[in-house]
User: What shape does this take?
Amino acid sequence: MTAPTAPNDGLISPDLPVLTRKDFVTDQEVRWCPGCGDYSILAQMQKMLPELGIARENIVFISGIGCSSRFPYYVNTYGFHSIHGRAPTIATGLKTARPELTVFVITGDGDGLSIGGNHLLHAMRRNIDLNIVLFNNRIYGLTKGQYSPTSEFGKITKSSPYGTTERPLNPIRIALAAGATFVARSVDRDTKHLEEMLYRAAKHRGVSFVEVYQNCNIFNDGAFAAFAEKEVRAERMIYLEHGKPLRFGKNNEHGIRLNGFTPEIVENAESDEGLLVHDAHAENITLANILVGMDYPEFPVPIGVFRDVDAPTFDQLVQQQVDEAIAKGRGSLEEALRAGETWVVE
Amino acid sequence: MTTETQLKPEHHVEELERVTIRFAGDSGDGMQLTGTQFTRTAAVFGNDLATLPDFPAEIRAPAGSLPGVSGFQISFASTEIYTPGDRPDVLVAMNPAALKTNLGDLKPGGLLIVDKDEFEPTNLKKAAYESNPLEDGSLAGYQVVPIAITRQNELALEGLPLSAKDKFRCRNFYALGLILWLYGRTLDTTIKWATEQFKRRPDILEANLRALRAGYNFGETTELFRVQYRVPPAKVPPGTYRHISGNEATALGFVAASVLSGLPLFYGSYPITPASDILHELSKLKNFGVKTFQAEDEIAAIGAAIGAAYGGHLGLTGTSGPGLALKSEALNLAVMTELPIVVIDVQRAGPSTGMPTKTEQADLLQAMFGRNGDSYVAIVAPCTPSDCFIMAIEAFRIALKHMVPVVFLSDGYLGNGSEPWRIPDISELPRIEWKYAEPQEGKFNPYLRDPKTLARPWAVPGQKGLEHRIGGLEKSGETGDISYDPRNHHEMTLARKAKVDRIVDDIPLLQVTGPEEGDLLVLGWGGTYGSITSACENARKRGLSVASAHLRYLNPFPANLPEVLKRYKKVLIPELNTGQLALLIRGRFLVDAVSFNKISGQPFKIAEIEGKIDEVLGLRDEYVLEFTRSAGVSGG
Assistant: This one.
């Protein structure tokens, strides 16, 4: 008897259906608090999914624990609501076993960066072809308002009545350090931008990491309002675009330039000359790291794609090793049992 | 001119039924290799045998120190045997530390071969000897054969372009050659192995073969040995045999499960003693479609296995006790989502880090109960190294048919121990039944259970129309949606339990060895099979009414267990823990079983179980364990 061929070979249908947003809506009542930023992320995801041209049954959403992790119940694909912080591990096993599937990981700042930090790090460094979306609301919502690893220093919460004594993590910096090949940031309020980021992340071959600034209107309302509200957005956020100079302002009048390794604002920069030009395809992460250090109020907050590079994916490399081994001769159980020294007793 | 043969002294040849040898030396002395090579030779010769490697936790403890001693015991026989022997007949001690830590086990009057060159002041001091035991008369109770192994090995390798250190490292082959001669074995198997092993290092090959032959020839020409021994081949069932360790058999068994089921195997694991060899073995077998994943931690390893099982493949993870603790939460997710994963636990001495290189069977209750909530998994436990092969297939057979996580409880003694194995014909192996979910009308309910087994349908991504959501939250048995309904949780919990209980119809009955009813049943599980079986055989030879039975299925128990327990006046349960199976048996069946416990990191000796049998039958006073080995103070 010889080694099995994958029984899923016949499962993936080649015909691409024409689907609409409605096809990705389940019969489940959405139970996030009214006004929660999660609604926007869900809506942009459901809007974006049909554009991928992938059949529903070949898409899987895997989440951990937290408000964000309820997400899979509301998307009409295969879904797995797992345990706290472990979604990347389940996604890694699934994608490695079944590389032909499209796998999303939905996580939050607590789930992904606190209890599940290790898994997030390793999923990204392996460059496994997962689409990781981290909802960052800088608070623990489901457990009713404790500080999270992205909460600002000194923040007063239920578990830090005197203010936190911890410095926050920057998720984008973690993704860059772990070697993620696609790293982007968006905000729940900027729906068009969010949809585009989700689409580009899904299209990226290799791990993609999208941080979404998401408002928790119950426990951390307005966390991003100072720069994400429509009226101030142009002045206080900067949209990263590959190959273009960094400009912001109502009329794109201001720019960013480098002074050594330090960014500085050039107000009313008339010419693009001397302005920093974004390079999302750079192998070197120095520029991306400088950009991620820019934060409100000193700087406009960068959103968009920080990094987008091509590299072999873990799932493909594993599959390749298996394919090459099988090409040399599919394993025979009889032979494997008789490997090494044998002797016959009459 | 005299011929060569005339120069050789006459050796009287004595036939023996069974011999137990322990090779002991510094961990840098290659004792595991020496033992393994002797084992292969004995196996190919046709002896029945069992081995017990015993290595230190330190990868490189200081040379010559007590914690650095590594040992390998082999028992080989012309009859069927079940254990690597209680006490060695022969001890080969390559240095004073090895002598000190192992002498206590050597049989009185046993043969003691030492490398006398190593008994010099520095090494004696490292082994905390105040005087040289070879000279102070303390070894009077043994047949001591001091041999200048180091010096003679040096002479044999003279002229070879190797460093003194490399030459010194060939001493083990000198000792091996000598022991092979002593038991009338040929060098063929070792030469064949070495030729293959060192094909890229002809200088090392030459040195090892010279050392091997020098040792062999020394035995033949010296007058130190008056007797040469013969242990004839054992009478075993006809067939093709190989030598196999428990961890190798485990890896092969899971590959066999993949072949038999036609489902690709995914193995997620984090390196841990003594389970890592399974990862090493499986990572070689990519031509079977096996995908191995060395995870970032134990949790990721099981998470990935769950992901693979969710994807419709064989999801397997492997670890040892501390790793199982880390996997508990994820294992519970597999319980809740009813996905067919298998978790290997090669148990080691605990709690906590415990003694990683020493065996124990103290994770039974962890496997059974070590999770939050009312959480049931199936548990199987192989009883010999080669049985790991069959039980691995059984683990997935049960997991797939019943859609339930299965824990496979091996242990360090089984995993590292080895024995000859009659290679099974593929047609003898169990069938593995599984199916993916059938398309359903309307909304798919992932908890629509099979009425007989209560298994839920296995709907895997890629199946059109079966899109559904599962997770760790309780689900409605009727719709698959999240449910906090009191009645539903009650019923789902009972269903998950009943699903495991119903596996009882699908596993073999408990076999009893010995009288069908009588004074005493000795009940065991896992790696204690050999010692228990031998002790009970000996007891019956002494005319006692003693039967033995060994549980390989621990959850659920075989259907006839309660009835078997009732047929004996007394029940004795020997375990390498403080009484975990005994607790289950007493709690489940109200049987006043006597627990016999040893928690030393070492397997049971046959004599220990016999001693306890005699106590339980009122033939002697209380039996008290004696610990003969001074294991050395470990810094690790």
In short: The radius of gyration of chain B is 27 Å. The first strand of chain B starts at residue 12 and ends at 15. Chain B is about 35% helix and 20% strand. Residues 115 and 244 of chain B are 30 Å apart (CA to CA).
